[in-house]
Amino acid sequence: MNTPRRAVLALALAGALSACAGMSQANKPAPKADIVDTAVAAGSFKTLVAAVQAAGLVDTLKSPGPFTVFAPTDEAFAKLPPGTVEGLLKDKAALTKVLTYHVVPGKVMAKDVPTADVKTVQGQTVALKKDSMGVTVNNAKVVAADVEATNGVIHVIDTVILPK
Questions:
Q1: What is the pLDDT of residue 158?
Q2: What is 5-74 written as a DSSP string?
Q3: How far is it, in rounded angstroms, from Cα 123 to Cα 154?
Q4: Within 13 Å, how many C-alpha atoms sit on residue 146's CB side?
Q5: Band of the pLDDT at 73, cuts 50, 70, 90?
Q6: Is residue 19 pLDDT above 80, yes or no?
Q7: What own/partner pairs with CB < 8 Å and gap ≥ 24 does 110-113 have?
């Protein structure tokens, strides 16, 4: 290939790459589903969704919010001692306490997570920490951050956090 033609192709490629690099979060499509529908669509929160339904919290988590939800995966629930999930599903008050302990008022993106104790919807605080290793909430690691919904944000965690 001759040099002028290479130069034109290189400039075109550079322009295309810089256009892609210049895309920001602002260019990201707006979320189309609320927290509950986003969790259902993800497919890895079947236990959480069943628990939210059993606790009667669906309407709350579909309301305008905004909310930040630290959402345990099905694998996180599976790490609990045998019978724990079944016991919680039979005790609506205890289940509600656990679920609302995973919710913080407002929409807090991972980059904005403070290293501090933050009050949950349940009323107790969780210890949030952000460092070079990522974000943690109590003893749970955020394994996927900033899953946006129309009424807040979901941060996927690898462990169910339990209130005191």
A1: 97
A2: HHHHHHHHHHHHHHHHHT--GGGSPPP-S-HHHHHHHHSS-HHHHHHHHHHT-HHHHHSS--EEEEEE-H
A3: 19
A4: 10
A5: very high
A6: no
A7: 110/135, 110/142, 110/145, 110/146, 110/155
SS3 79: coil
What pLDDT is attached to residue 11?
A: 31
pLDDT tens profile 20-65: 333 334 556 677 898 999 999 998 999 999 999 999 999 999 999 8
Q: Which residue has the tokens 């939210």?
A: 52
Residue owning tokens 């205890």: 94
Task: Report how far residue 130's alpha carbon sits from residue 96's, in angstroms, rounded to the nearest whole number.
Answer: 27
Residue 163, class by beta-carbon neighbours within 10 Å (0-12 exposed, 13-18 middle, 19+ buried)? middle
Identify the burial level of 143 via C-beta atoms within 10 angstroms of its C-beta, where 0-12 means exposed, 13-18 middle and 19 or more buried: middle
Sequence-distant (≥ 6) Cβ neighbours of residue 71 within 8 angstroms: 39, 45, 48, 102, 154, 155, 156, 157
